[in-house]
Write the structure tokens for this entry.
Amino acid sequence: MIRLWHVAQSRSFRVLWFLEEISAEYDLVACSFFDRSLRDAAHLARSPAGRVPAIEIDGLPMHESGAILLYLAERLAPQLRIAEGAPARAAFLQGLHYAETLGAHLANLTQHHIVLRDDWMRSPTVMRLEARRLENALRAIGPDWVAGQFSVADIAIGYAVCMAQRFVPLPQTTARYADMVLERPAFQRAMQKDGPAQIYTRDFYAPPEG
Ligand SMILES: N[C@@H](CCC(=O)N[C@@H](CS)C(=O)NCC(=O)O)C(=O)O
């Protein structure tokens, strides 16, 4: 039995998308960033930092999207990971972790554009710098799947690429990669289950001029 604690548009989308890729049976617990439910004792027992994704897999709690994707792939969908010792294993592991290099820029940009509500709280310099760094980091992505075939590394990276296009224009090869992601039926099903927007209400958040 799998239960996923999820907030729309957040990194828990990665796990939702994976579960759709393998047509798993699962319970989806829709959570909110705004009602403090991620800080209650029950949730902190699943996710010590009070975040999403959090998941229970036959009673086993896990948090941290990359680790969840790899663990679930090993257990339930070996075709979505690259096995130890295989030539593409290095590219696979690198992609799985590089998703959080992109994630760090996305988190900074989300903080600045959305979480910090008043202009005086924001640093235009950091906003411009982070947008530039994100755009540079995206150049490593695409046009093909990260490890030569679709894998959970592409679920981790694909989510980040989709979020990134809210802040920067995608480099050409990355845009082709994004098209492949959007075409996947499981990605489309996960989008339908994602729920009403909780974080991003605009298609694009331009860096401040200067
Ligand atoms: N590296 C973690 C990051 C988890 C994370 O920061 N999740 C965000 C949503 S994208 C969250 O729950 N934020 C709520 C908070 O910081 O209070 C992962 O990939 O699972």
Remarks:
- Residues 53 and 64 are 7 Å apart (CA to CA).
